[in-house]
Design a protein that fits this description.
The protein is 51% helix and 10% strand. It has 749 residues and is of the alpha/beta class. The strands form six sheets. Strands 8-11-14-4-15 form a five-stranded parallel sheet. The chain has a four-stranded antiparallel sheet with strand order 1-7-5-6.
Length: 749
């Protein structure tokens, strides 16, 4: 049945438009150049064309940008090249800012030294995003080389078909006539043979070293720009050298005539096509080799001076990854004999082949499991390898908010089958982080907070790492100092074998668990089902090595952690219910605090303030001040308490001169205490509202009054709209909350 649309015409129009756009991009991006035109580009923009692979990677990282993450003393720089790019299917790397810093610092060192003389080894436990880190670098380099600022060029040898204009080169004459112009721009039907550059060589290597050095001295470069050794002293690959020397002899030393056979081509790094980005899997062979080019029709059309040559070409990952990144995935799973060539390659940037030396210009990265690295350190060859490696540790995440983002992606995909409680990702992440924490010991902090750190429970430590929340009872300066000590707490024991973040459940194992729970879910995927699955998992001590770790105080007690996250989840659910109930307006806390600060300010200065109702000047309301302080649990001297509160507001204004004062941000614990005090007065009403909501969600609505139905519907709608809880999720979660927390209150007279 015809739709009346000229489908063939539409398709033809698309093809015409795409063809025109492609031709325009081809011209705009200068995809093909003669050597002379390429040389002009080098002189015009030497910082682009004189970059080594390390410089190119560093520029790609900087091109993507950087932002600060974290708060206060724990602030870090995050490189945006590691951020997710969903449009490309790139999930990025969550967290790992310390590892990012170490990685970038190593690359900066290579750039300053002018040579990539060490292999960067990312090491950590299974599933700590080591391969994802490398994948983000590769995808970032792919994006960058597609941009004008990231241009990279290689070259090919071009030999034209016999025409009157092209003389008799290669067609029976051992003394070819000199070409009048470059063959780079010939059409395909005018080219007899193109010898592609299998090694992605920099076209500048075609210049003899003396001429190359002269060029480097003549271009204008910033004082801090370091021309890499590979451009100063590097040599062509075996085949390119053979072709160059043969043509140079035929043209009686005329280098310009030789270079007319050079076609310079822009290329884009591609991990998919192994072009400037290669991942080497564990295997039992060397990663590069040479082979003779077999005779075929096109090669028989080469100039006579080349037909007498035995031409070889390089092949393998080292050749394919040149000018970009070469990754050795799970490096230490290979026999050491297969890796020994890296001792020279990583230090000198060369590979010894049967026919000569191959010069490399690539960033060498590797990943290794921590267990394999520990075993390797016991081998005699370890000192030799260590001197040629930059070690970058990648532990498991210890910030459960970051890990939540990872699980939320997986949980979102499961939402298609059944409704999912958004808290599932957070509860899973918190439990995972608890399994990785170590008891604080040897922490270099001042004596006033040392006992607080030593007594910190795993859940308290996780909340401090992720949110800066301090344990109950820690206030004022002690709270500030504890937050400032987070880096010191993290660093404690970092030099030990069992460092924090090495052991515990991996994200991969949690993903399997979440998928398994989702497959078994009926009405919804909620936290209760997840907690039951975690209780079963901690009994599988023969499966998971970390479950066999001996308890250390409150740490490494995995079954207890299930109860901890259950209690934490119920606390959060109760807060959501309270907020959704509408029994106390959230704005009420802000209003109370604003009034408290205003009156405290005037009380400290002994000044009166204008009454908003009568307009009369009245003294500060001391009764209100004391009432708020009681609600907040502030028991110090009144002047000290009020003075500190005013000082914190003043400090916020200094740090945020253009932002409105945010009391919840300045006094997070106090706001929580204020909420608790107000909701304590409404506890019975909330318990009965939850009981009514369960009846309503079960379809038993006949026994509810009109007011009760309206209250329930308001709360159910708020939980759905504000917190993303589908009704099936609400029914399951509220049933647990009511049974474990609210039933006695609801039944009270």
């Amino acid at each position: 049945m015809s739709s009346g649309v000229d489908s063939k015409g539409v398709a033809s129009s698309w093809l015409d438009r795409w063809g025109a756009e492609g031709a325009e991009r081809y011209r705009e991006h200068r995809l093909i150049l003669s050597f002379e035109d390429y040389l002009a580009e080098v002189v015009a923009a030497p910082q682009i064309f004189l970059r080594s692979a390390a410089q190119l990677m560093l520029d790609a990282i900087r091109w993507h940008g950087v932002r600060a993450v974290g708060q206060g003393e724990a602030r870090r720089s995050r490189y945006l090249i590691f951020d997710p790019h969903p449009e490309e299917g790139d999930e990025g790397v969550l967290g790992q800012e310390d590892a990012q810093q170490e990685l970038v610092r190593a690359i900066e060192g290579f750039v300053r030294e002018g040579r990539t003389q060490r292999l960067i080894l990312l090491h950590g436990p299974n599933g700590s995003a080591k391969s994802s880190m490398v994948a983000s670098l590769i995808r970032g380099l792919e994006r960058y080389t597609r941009h004008d600022a990231g241009r990279v060029y290689r070259f090919h040898w071009v030999f034209p078909k016999r025409t009157p204009d092209h003389g008799r080169i290669g067609f029976g004459s051992s003394q070819p006539s000199r070409p009048a112009g470059s063959f780079a721009y010939l059409r395909e039907d005018e080219i007899e043979v193109r010898l592609p550059c299998e090694h992605h060589e920099n076209p500048l290597l075609l210049l003899p070293r003396a001429e190359r050095q002269s060029l480097l001295e003549s271009v204008h470069l910033p004082a801090e720009f370091v021309v890499a050794d590979v451009l100063r002293y590097g040599e062509l690959s075996q085949r390119s050298r053979q072709v160059f020397d043969a043509l140079l002899a035929s043209y009686e030393g005329d280098i310009a005539a030789v270079l007319r056979h050079v076609q310079v081509e822009r290329f884009y790094v591609s991990g998919h096509y192994r072009r400037g980005a290669v991942s080497v899997e564990p295997q039992l062979r060397v990663d590069a080799g040479v082979r003779q080019i077999t005779a075929d029709r096109s090669l028989s059309a080469l100039p006579a001076v080349l037909q007498t040559q035995t031409l070889f070409e390089t092949y393998g990952p080292l050749s394919e990854g040149n000018r970009g990144i070469i990754e050795y995935n799970d490096l230490l799973k290979r026999p050491m004999e297969a890796n020994k060539y890296l001792l020279a390659t990583s230090e000198k940037g060369t590979v010894a082949l049967e026919t000569g030396i191959l010069h490399l210009d690539a960033l060498l990265l590797a990943t290794a499991n921590e267990t394999y690295l520990e075993a390797f350190k016991e081998q005699p060859d370890w000192p030799s390898y260590k001197a040629r490696m930059e070690l970058v540790r990648m532990p498991y995440l210890l910030d459960f908010e970051q890990e939540t983002q990872l699980y939320a992606r997986w949980v979102e995909r499961l939402r298609v089958r059944v409704p999912v409680d958004p808290s599932v990702a957070q509860v899973a992440a918190l439990w995972a982080v608890l399994t990785r924490l170590r008891r604080p010991q040897g922490v270099d902090v001042e004596g006033a907070i040392r006992s607080v750190v030593q007594d910190m429970a795993p859940l308290q430590k996780a909340l401090l790492y992720a949110r800066g929340e301090v344990p109950p009872g820690v206030h004022g300066d002690h709270a500030i100092r504890l937050r400032a000590a987070v880096d010191a707490i993290r660093a404690a024991g970092a030099e030990q074998r069992a460092y924090e973040g090495r052991f515990g459940v991996s994200p991969r194992e949690m993903k399997v668990l979440l998928v398994r729970v989702a497959e078994q879910a009926q009405a919804c995927l909620g936290v209760p089902a997840l907690l039951e699955a975690l209780s079963r998992l901690v009994k599988e001590t023969t499966v998971y090595e970390w479950l066999r770790m001996e308890p250390d105080g409150q740490y490494h007690r995995y079954e207890r952690f299930v109860g901890d996250v259950r209690s934490w989840w119920l606390d959060g659910l109760l807060r959501q219910v309270r907020q959704a109930s509408g029994l106390v307006e959230e704005r009420e806390y802000q209003r109370v605090f604003e009034r408290y600060i205003t009156h405290a300010h005037h009380w400290l200065r002994g000044e009166k303030l204008d009454d908003p109702v009568s307009g009369a000047s009245v003294p500060a309301d001391e009764r209100m001040l004391r009432e708020v302080e009681v609600r907040l649990g502030w028991r110090e001297a009144e002047r000290d308490v009020r003075s500190r509160a005013i000082s914190r507001v003043a400090a916020f204004r200094i740090d945020h001169p253009d932002a409105p004062v945010s009391y919840p941000e300045i006094f997070p614990q106090q706001f929580d205490a204020l909420r608790e005090s107000y909701y304590a007065e409404k506890a019975r009403d909330i318990a009965r509202l939850v009981r009514d909501a369960l009846r309503w969600l079960d379809g038993d609505r006949a026994g509810l009054s009109e007011d009760q139905r309206r209250s329930v519907e308001r709360m159910v709608d708020a939980l759905t709209e504000q917190h993303g809880l589908a009704q099936a999720v609400q029914r399951e979660a509220l049933a647990v909350l009511f049974r474990e927390r609210l039933r006695p209150l609801a039944d009270a007279p």
